[in-house]
Amino acid sequence: MCRWITLLALFASPALGQEPSACIALAQNGAQVVRVAFGDPLPQSTVRLRFLNHASFALETPGGITVITDYTGQIGNPDVVPDVVTMNNAHDSHFTNSPDPRIPHVLRGWGPPGLPARIDETVGDLRIRNVTTDTRGPFGEGARANGNSIFLFEVAGLCIAHLGHLHQMLSADQRARIGRVDVVMVPVDGGYTMDQRAMAEVVKDLHARLIIPMHWFGPKTLAAFLAQSAGRLDIVTAGGPEVEISRATLPRRPTILLLDPALIP
Length: 265
Prior knowledge:
CATH topology: Metallo-beta-lactamase, Chain A
CATH superfamily: Ribonuclease Z/Hydroxyacylglutathione hydrolase-like
Largest sheet: 9 strands, mixed
CATH architecture: 4-Layer Sandwich
Radius of gyration: 17 Å
Strand order of the largest sheet: 1-14-16-13-12-11-10-9-8
Structural class: mainly beta
Order of helices and strands: EEEEEEEEEEEHEHEHEEE
Distance between the termini: 36 Å
Number of domains: 1
Shape: globular
CATH class: Alpha Beta
């Protein structure tokens, strides 16, 4: 059975170099989980994640950069203007054609017809990369090469991956280009993206220390995904939408972190 726990075993870790990518390397270290509030000052070397809805998260860096993933225009507080938004276009619940014009960096995970999106940008203390994967319709129709982007966020020594609308097992080349993953946001619906058993294998292959389910369409779907991890992973319930994560410490075992979605107040 999965062990339901409220505290993580923590241990210290050294910093990694930043060239050319801090995440394309092996590591044995990682991240502490703490409940917090959006917009509060962050300790050095700490990031904040807030689960907004569906596949959308707000990520805040210690340098004050805010990113919204799978941005649809609906984040809650209209006075919050993110520095960066990322989008995928498998469905309209993952993008908008009318992003807030105040947002300085709008990163689309799809390229021109027949071409992959190529993203490698640094905004403040945050580096953002992508690795493209192929997509198809919910019944296998309409296959599209490079239709999805896995977005990779490198900040404060952490390597954070958002799998987007993943439809395929990762190739060896894709896995190598992703690099190390400390934290992964993973779609677990079991239908529109991938079968839950296959998605659990993707998660296992990534070796992330912290696994955050998203795109789960209700508690039964989420519970079914958790059952795939029985005996392998610990499960932590955050009791809210937000956590702070630091690379100074990581759970000793790969751990699923359950966040309750809520828009920015």
